[in-house]
Design goal:
The complex is a heterodimer of chains A (173) and B (571).
Chain A (H helix, E strand, L loop, with lengths): L1 E9 L4 H11 L3 E9 L5 E9 L2 H14 L3 E6 L5 E12 L2 H11 L5 E5 L3 E8 L1 H11 L4 E6 L3 E4 L17
Antiparallel strand pairs in A: 1-3, 1-4, 2-3, 5-7, 5-8, 5-9, 6-7
Chain B lengths: L1 H13 L1 E2 H11 L4 E4 L6 H8 L4 E4 L3 H15 L3 E5 L3 H4 L2 H9 L4 E7 L15 H5 L5 E4 L6 H13 L5 E7 H5 L1 E2 L20 H13 L3 E5 L1 H5 L3 H11 L3 E3 L14 E4 L6 H9 L2 E5 L5 H4 L10 E6 L13 E4 L2 H10 L8 H13 L13 H11 L5 E3 L4 H9 L8 E2 L10 H11 L5 E6 H7 L3 H7 L4 E6 L4 H10 L15 H7 L3 E5 L2 H11 L6 E6 L25
Parallel strand pairs in B: 2-3, 2-4, 4-5, 5-7, 6-7, 9-10, 9-12, 10-11, 12-13, 13-14, 15-16, 15-17, 17-18, 18-20, 19-20
Antiparallel strand pairs in B: 1-8
Helix pairs in contact in B: 2-3, 2-8, 4-6, 4-19, 12-15, 13-16, 17-18, 17-24
The chains are: A alpha+beta (173), B alpha/beta (571).
Chain lengths: 173, 571
């Protein structure tokens, strides 16, 4: 199952190495990682999408991450109300004839065209992974020349729906 | 003018180099002895050491330094401190660092590094020590600025010795140890991401107390966490109060008196039948400071499957890792036991259970061939026990001699058993004995080793020679890699591939080459005579015991089998 895990870390050299290293060592499949600064200087936040089998495995991952000296906080936010965003840049083959047709596809996704050349144009789309998959599917028939994705970044929404059976993994009893 | 000049002069005198700060910090941490080997990138550090009274033990290979530090840490509970140079010096430590990580030993390692301005250029003797040691340390630091050095050293000792202990490495570029600074005020540890839980959650303790009250077949599994927490006394009080039998893990031996009526012996692959059946049949398993290693549990499907599992561990990541746990208690072992002793608990009725176990112990004791002319390795261990009155510090490598030592040297007290458990490192025991002897110069330290493992680190004999350390080396020499041979016999149709080693050095001459008294014994009678002499004086000695080459370690749980499927339980 796919889980979204965030880790707040001290921005030290080697922290990313330690974290990816422990994931490799314990055979966790990382689908994506994003890292960036937070509102606090010297503190970064990582968002992982990992593929794990079973609750035991994700619990173990969170505990192992928590053990790292430079890691301040780890949360599995998959089951919370969260805002999830990913950005993709897609270069699509297009000549003048299909350009307006493409615009018609892009618009409902609130994606934008950020570069145009004679043979192709570049689409920028942000959203959750499903939305990005959907636009990719629609653009594929036109010929995708190149594509890059950032991987998702996420955090909990300002207000959580009242759910009582949230799965909590904590180092405390 | 004059006042200004004087101020400047004072400022100059208080300025210190990184190397001086390092040595000064070690003094503040009450480090008595360093294990190390000099080299280009640590020249300044060794120069500062030259002016310092701290004792430095020069090994003959960095692996010898770190295993000695591990032995020192294991018996003293204090961090073992290692210094090595950059590149090969650091990479030679890798086995020992991993060993300390697996067996949770507090070790602080200082490695030199090439100068900051050439890091990353494949400079002479450069290695990516941070990258190499990240997965095998509890934490590692590279010092970028000498101003950070005092704080980093303090943090390194703090991390290594608190919570679940482990190795911490500090990589110091050459220019940083030369850099000068005026030491400031006492620095503080600043580790917001490192706050190990020390005291147990009261509700969980209550839950365990309730479970104890209703248990019919409770058993305690005590591991090295009990030793690290110094909780032997509390463990004994707790088990005696509720009459709960105790099983030790390999590394936990000594945390409970070996001859105690409630003691069932070691559990696991070569544990006692009684201990394993207790783990198999119990209805309440109280694991304290043990991590359910596969060599202990056997096939997980058959491990304590009818039991409520309570797991006390200072490392939350160990709880639920291998065994589903109903009562998790994150805590220092001693704190948890004190809390349990303070909690009102109904003493369970375990008489029937203890009777069953006593019967098993009577029916299936540890055994070896009795009517034979051969010199048996098990007898060597028993003789060592006899001549040291069961009171020596024993170190081993990994393999048959290790298992026999665990089975037949009954440990009465904590912190007398030094063995490579998790990593299973050949060549560990002899240098570890050197470290243990330095921690306790007045105690008898015996390095029980195999002919294979001893040859991996025998160069450290020169340390015995130099310091005249009275370590007693007992080589259980079966002229083979015994455990490999045993598995080849059992699982590879006796194809002894590369495990029989009939050609060996003359260990007696070897010992003598290092100025150490050495003997070779072929029979029990010869051993008796040599042992009584060897253990009577305070000099190093090497005894090559030529034992039977065909003995196997029994009883045994074959790989993939459950605790209840032990083989070789009877002659």
């Amino acid at each position: 199952m796919k889980r979204i895990v965030t880790a707040t870390v001290i921005n030290q050299s080697g922290v990313l190495n330690r974290i990816t290293g422990l994931m490799t060592k314990r055979q966790f499949n990382i689908e994506s990682i994003t890292v960036g600064h937070t509102e606090t200087e010297g503190i970064s936040k990582m968002t992982f999408v990992v593929n794990v089998e079973g609750d035991g495995k994700i619990e173990q991952l969170i505990k192992q991450l928590n053990k790292q000296v430079d890691v301040l906080k780890v949360s599995d936010i998959t089951d919370q109300a969260i805002v999830v965003r990913e950005l993709a840049l897609i270069k699509v083959v297009s000549n003048a004839q299909v350009r307006s047709e493409l615009s018609g596809i892009i618009e409902p996704f609130r994606a934008s065209i950020i570069d145009v050349s004679r043979e192709n144009l570049t689409v920028q789309v942000t959203g959750d992974s499903d939305k990005i998959e959907a636009i990719i599917d629609l653009l594929r028939p036109y010929g995708i020349k190149e594509m890059v994705r950032t991987g998702i970044t996420a955090f909990p929404r300002g207000s959580q729906r009242s759910v009582t059976d949230l799965k909590q993994y904590s180092i405390l009893n | 003018m004059r006042a200004k000049a004087r101020n400047e002069a004072e400022a100059v005198t208080t300025e210190m180099t990184g190397a001086d700060i390092l040595i000064d910090s070690l003094k503040k941490e009450n480090v008595e002895v360093l294990f190390g080997y000099p080299g280009g990138a640590v020249l300044s550090i060794y120069d500062a050491l030259y002016r310092s009274p701290i004792k430095h033990i020069l090994s003959k290979h960095e692996q010898g330094s770190i295993h000695a530090a591990e032995g020192y840490a294991r018996v003293s509970g204090k961090p073992g401190v290692v210094i090595a140079t950059s590149g090969p010096g650091a990479t030679n430590l890798v086995t020992g660092i991993t060993d300390a990580m697996m067996d949770s030993l507090p070790i602080v390692i200082f490695t030199g590094q090439v100068a900051s301005n050439v890091i990353g250029t494949d400079a002479f003797q450069e290695a990516d020590v941070m990258g190499i040691t990240s997965p095998i340390t509890k934490h590692n630091f590279q010092v970028r600025d000498v101003k950070d050095l005092p704080r980093i050293i303090k943090e390194a000792f703090h991390i290594a010795s608190t919570g679940r202990p482990g190795p911490v490495l500090v990589d110091i570029p050459k220019d940083v140890s030369n850099m000068k600074m005026v030491p400031g005020d006492e620095c503080k540890v600043n580790l917001p991401g490192y706050q190990p839980t020390f005291s147990p959650n009261v509700l969980q303790i209550k839950k365990l107390a309730d479970a104890i009250g209703t248990a019919k077949k409770p058993v305690i599994l005590a591991g090295a966490g009990v030793l690290h927490a110094n909780a032997g006394k509390e463990l004994r009080a707790f088990s005696e109060r509720h009459e709960i039998p105790v099983v030790n893990t390999l590394l936990g031996l000594g945390s409970y008196p070996g001859k105690h009526p409630l003691f069932l012996g070691m559990g696991g692959m070569h544990g006692t039948y009684t201990a394993n059946m207790a783990l198999y049949e119990c209805d309440l398993l109280i694991s304290i400071g043990a991590r359910f290693d596969d060599r202990l549990t056997g096939n997980l499907d058959h491990f304590a499957r009818h039991a409520t599992v309570a797991h006390i561990d200072v490392d939350p990541a160990e709880i639920g890792k291998n065994i589903p746990t109903q009562i998790p208690i994150v805590s220092d072992a001693r704190e948890a036991l004190i809390s349990l002793l303070d909690t009102e608990t109904r003493t369970p009725e375990t008489e029937e259970w203890r009777k069953q176990l006593a019967q098993k112990n009577e029916d299936y004791p540890l055994w070896y061939k009795s009517n034979t002319e051969e010199f048996l390795p098990q007898r060597v261990i028993e003789l060592v026990h006899k001549h040291t009155k069961g009171d020596a510090i024993i170190t081993t490598d990994v393999g048959q001699h290790q298992m026999w030592a665990a089975q037949y040297y009954s440990f009465a007290d904590p912190n007398k058993w030094v063995t490579s458990g998790g990593l299973g490192t050949m060549g560990f025991g002899f240098p570890a004995a050197i470290g243990a002897q330095l921690a306790f110069p007045d105690q008898t330290v015996v390095s029980i080793t195999g002919d294979g493992g001893f040859q991996m680190t025998l160069q450290e004999l020169s340390v015995l020679q130099e310091l005249n350390l009275p370590v007693k080396i007992v080589i259980v020499n079966n002229q083979s890699l015994g455990m490999v041979r045993q598995w080849q016999a059992a699982f590879y149709e006796q194809r002894y591939s590369q495990s029989l080693i009939p050609v060996q050095p003359d260990f007696v001459k070897l010992g003598e080459a290092y100025g150490i008294k050495a003997y070779q014994v072929h029979t029990e009678e010869e051993a008796e005579a040599v042992f009584s002499e060897a253990f009577a004086h305070r000099d190093p000695v090497l005894i090559d015991c030529r034992v039977s080459g065909t003995e196997n370690v029994y009883p045994m749980i074959a790989p993939g089998k459950g605790l209840h499927e032990m083989i070789g339980v009877k002659p």
